[in-house]
């Protein structure tokens, strides 16, 4: 080692030990952090949010299209609910819980006891309840009576209650083949009660957080059973049967003398469940056999709500007026009909009760034929099905059933069994708006073409009466079952996928399914033809009742295929997605906010023109997919600008490369919109000259004096070197 090298090393050692290398951040990371707003603001002046709910609605009880006297009340405000135990959606852990406890009151004939038992969340601000059904309040704890018969919560009682009695007996004058010998549709006796669930109207408000929901359930003090709309109080036995994705609960009171064995009743309604591919299939069907010994019922059977029904205990199955099937068909009618399409409701219940019972071999063709022949009675001659004012007694049951049958027959003939009346029936169930006559005719046209449509037009919009067909004609059209196209959601989780910028993966195992705005849900729906004829299908994806995607095809008998349908969700909220009879709940959220959690640079020291690589780790530690708008800049120049999309609980790295032309300490900033992080890079000229430049500008923690010392020593070493030579 010569003198010059030794002196240079010595000077550097002294100089660096005096000041060290400057680091532009605490902790030695080389990163500057600018604080961003990573918290949530909370308003101190919380606003009150309100909700209303009527459960069940005032028009809940309809017996075969006839409104029940005393049940209509246009003054009821709120959102109608289809089931007494159904939930008004909100935060499942922070909602109002209501148990409606029913009890018999032997001391007050015609009335039952009702106790409303509430559990309220802490953030509930208000709650008021309106009672109907000729309620006689006996006690209220935590409620005070307000205006219009409403009871107002005091705001502090955690478990408020209202106890009252309500009138049970309801009567109805009914015509047609389902009419009974008396007038009662609900009744109370000394030993048992058949009743409609209490009708209540709720309004409530809350502060903070998400929506507060209301969940209603029913309990019975003593023996009994209840569905969504009907309750039976008294000794009974409940029989349960499952078929085709439905659970049938048959309640047989001790006082009933059932004309058919429960297994036979289950067989008949299960056959109807399988045969009817019209959608609107409920998970549970509540069936009650009402005793006929003490009460003269006004109807032979009654269906109410989504899937509650009762049938007299003495009704048999081997008849063209199979009341068990008739009422079951009503549970499959999920549409709303305008007055000019109202005939379809009783017409199809009557027609399919006869047809499906014939297909079960419980009756002869002559009995089926005689049932349809009732539509040719002279009292119906001038009746027009689309004009209810023109109807005679039972026109919709009789002339309507004959018209429905003829339309069905023509559809089968025109399509070689590829379509039937179930096709327009199913389209009606899918309609999000009330169905009128024109819509029905369009559905017939879509299923079978112009000729069946013309037949339907004549038989429904004029007084023309169809002719009853012969056995040979029946065999030609009904000899083999028509195409029965069924639609269902996929069996495996991979059949439901989410696609978009955040992720592309299966999501079918989630319940409910959660997506964020901008994502597309794709479903591999199952389509299957269980009939004996080939037929066309139209697989439709519905969101909140609206058809958002569809695909078509044709299936041979027994064939099964997959139909891909999808929908992009652009608005936040809760949605119901349906494919055929199957439904899934989908929660649509706004994307979460992802953030830059780490920034590094390599190398930390470069020469002008040399590449510097900056790496920013972007993390989404939220349970939802998230995004971040990342900008990488230096000075006034933007190096990289990109939007990062991440799945839940995931991270990625954004990398950018830059070259600096000027020496000195340079800084690169990474900003994600919520905060910024900065790294520093030393740009030097290189060699001894570069080192001297760094020493001179103080970037190594020393000043001009150190530079002069180095220069002097270098000069001296050069002189010594020359002298030595």
UniProtKB/TrEMBL annotation:
Pfam families: CARDB (PF07705). One of its GO terms (biological process) is proteolysis. Keywords: Hydrolase, Membrane, Metalloprotease, Protease, Transmembrane, Transmembrane helix. GO terms for molecular function: metallopeptidase activity. Residues 41-53 have a biased composition (Polar residues). Residues 32-54 are annotated as: Disordered. Residues 512-590 form the CARDB domain. It comes from the Archaea. The chain crosses the membrane at residues 700-721. The keyword Aminoacyl-tRNA synthetase does not apply. Gene3D superfamilies: Immunoglobulins. This is Putative metalloprotease, contains C-terminal PDZ domain. It comes from Natranaeroarchaeum sulfidigenes. The lineage of its organism: Archaea, Methanobacteriati, Methanobacteriota, Stenosarchaea group, Halobacteria.
């Amino acid at each position: 080692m010569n003198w010059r090298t030794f002196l240079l090393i010595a000077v550097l050692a002294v100089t660096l030990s005096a000041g060290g290398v400057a680091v532009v951040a605490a902790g030695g990371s080389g990163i500057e952090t600018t604080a961003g707003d990573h918290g949530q603001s909370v308003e101190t002046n919380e606003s009150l949010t309100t909700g209303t709910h009527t459960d069940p609605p005032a028009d809940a009880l309809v017996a075969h299209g006839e409104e029940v006297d005393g049940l209509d009340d246009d003054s009821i405000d709120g959102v109608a609910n289809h089931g007494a135990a159904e939930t008004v959606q909100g935060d499942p852990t922070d909602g109002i819980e209501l148990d409606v406890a029913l009890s018999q009151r032997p001391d007050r004939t015609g009335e039952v006891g009702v106790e409303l038992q509430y559990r309220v969340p802490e953030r509930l601000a208000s709650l008021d309840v309106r009672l109907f059904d000729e309620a006689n309040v006996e006690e209220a704890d935590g409620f005070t009576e307000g205006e219009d018969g409403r009871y107002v919560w005091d705001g502090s009682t955690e478990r408020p209650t209202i106890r009252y009695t309500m009138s049970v007996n309801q009567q109805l004058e009914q015509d047609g083949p389902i009419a009974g010998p008396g007038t009662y549709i609900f009744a109370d006796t000394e030993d048992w009660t058949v009743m409609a669930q209490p009708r209540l109207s709720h309004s409530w408000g809350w502060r903070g957080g998400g929506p507060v929901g209301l969940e209603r359930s029913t309990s019975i003090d003593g023996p009994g059973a209840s569905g969504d709309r009907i309750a039976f109080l008294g000794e009974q036995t409940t029989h349960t049967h499952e078929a085709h994705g439905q659970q049938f609960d048959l309640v047989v009171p001790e006082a009933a003398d059932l004309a058919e064995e429960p297994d036979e009743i289950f067989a008949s309604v299960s056959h109807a469940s399988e045969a009817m591919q019209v959608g609107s299939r409920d998970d549970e069907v509540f069936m009650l056999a009402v005793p006929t010994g003490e009460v003269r019922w006004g109807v032979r059977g009654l269906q109410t709500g989504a899937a509650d029904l009762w049938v007299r205990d003495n009704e048999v199955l081997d008849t063209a007026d199979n009341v068990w099937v008739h009422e079951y068909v009503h549970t499959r009618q999920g549409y709303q009909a305008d007055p000019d399409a109202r005939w379809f409701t009783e017409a199809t219940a009557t027609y399919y009760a006869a047809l499906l019972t014939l297909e079960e071999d419980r009756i002869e063709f002559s009995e089926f034929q005689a049932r349809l022949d009732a539509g040719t009675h002279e009292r119906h001659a001038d009746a027009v099905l689309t004009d209810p004012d023109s109807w005679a007694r039972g026109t919709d049951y009789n002339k309507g059933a004959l018209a429905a049958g003829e339309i069905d027959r023509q559809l089968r003939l025109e399509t070689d069994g590829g379509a039937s009346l179930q096709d327009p029936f199913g389209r009606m169930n899918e309609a999000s708006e009330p169905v009128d006559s024109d819509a029905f005719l369009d559905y017939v046209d879509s299923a079978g073409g112009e000729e069946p449509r013309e037949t339907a037009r004549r038989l429904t919009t004029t007084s023309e009466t169809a002719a009853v067909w012969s056995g040979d004609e029946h065999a030609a059209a009904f000899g083999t079952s028509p195409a029965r196209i069924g639609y269902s959601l996929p069996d495996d989780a991979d059949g439901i996928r989410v696609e978009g910028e955040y992720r592309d993966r299966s999501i079918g195992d989630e319940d409910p399914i959660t997506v964020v705005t901008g994502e597309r849900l794709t479903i591999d729906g199952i389509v299957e033809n269980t009939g004996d004829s080939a037929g066309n299908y139209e697989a439709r994806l519905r969101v909140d009742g609206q058809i958002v995607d569809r695909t078509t095809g044709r299936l041979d008998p027994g064939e099964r295929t997959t139909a891909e349908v999808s929908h992009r969700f652009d608005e936040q909220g809760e949605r119901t997605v349906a494919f055929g009879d199957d439904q899934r709940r989908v929660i649509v959220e706004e994307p979460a906010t992802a953030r830059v959690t780490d920034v590094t640079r390599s190398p930390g020291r470069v020469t002008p023109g040399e590449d510097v690589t900056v790496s920013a780790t972007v993390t989404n530690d939220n349970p939802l997919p998230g995004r971040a708008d990342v900008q990488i800049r230096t000075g006034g120049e933007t190096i990289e600008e990109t939007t990062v999309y991440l799945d839940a609980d995931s991270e990625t790295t954004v990398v950018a490369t830059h070259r600096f032309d000027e020496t000195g300490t340079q800084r690169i900033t990474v900003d994600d919109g919520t905060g910024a992080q900065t790294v520093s890079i030393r740009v030097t000229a290189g060699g001894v000259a570069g080192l001297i430049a760094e020493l001179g500008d103080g970037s190594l923690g020393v000043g001009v004096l150190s530079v002069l010392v180095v220069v002097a020593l270098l000069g001296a070493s050069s002189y010594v070197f020359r002298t030595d030579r």
